[in-house]
Design goal:
The chain has four helices and two strands; from the N terminus they run βαβααα. Helix 2 packs antiparallel against helix 3. It has a domain of 72 residues. Strands 1-2 form a two-stranded parallel sheet. It is rod-shaped, with a radius of gyration of 29 Å. By secondary structure, it is mainly alpha-helical. It is 49% helix and 7% strand.
């Protein structure tokens, strides 16, 4: 069986796990992964699988994982429509002319941007 082995953060590609799999007759591909210094190493590894692996099974898994990474790193912004609100100002002691001037000034500032 062909095995593509990715070691953990604190281990290496030359571990007893790799030795055991090889001793059991498996064809193990294990490279050193510099997780601490290469920030996008996982994505690079997935891209390498897509570009270099012959079978479609692992390529499909790698594509799915890349899509998951992209969704996390680039979340889609959903437009949220604000509900219409009406505030009755008659119960407050507000100068309506001053209030109208305030809203007009804000609209002019917004248009200038």
């Amino acid at each position: 069986m062909k095995i593509f082995f990715l070691h953990g953060l604190e281990s290496t590609h030359q571990s007893s796990k790799v030795d055991f799999m090889r001793d059991s007759g498996h064809n193990v591909h294990a490279k050193y992964m510099d997780y601490k210094n290469v920030l996008d190493l996982y994505a690079k590894t997935l891209n390498s699988i897509i570009e270099n692996y012959d079978g479609e099974d692992l390529k499909q898994i790698a594509n799915t994982k890349l899509e998951e990474i992209d969704a996390i790193e680039n979340p889609k912004e959903e437009e949220i429509e604000a509900p219409e609100m009406e505030i009755e100002l008659d119960e407050f002691n507000i100068d309506h002319d001053e209030l109208e001037k305030l809203f007009n000034d804000e609209e002019e500032e917004f248009e200038d941007e």
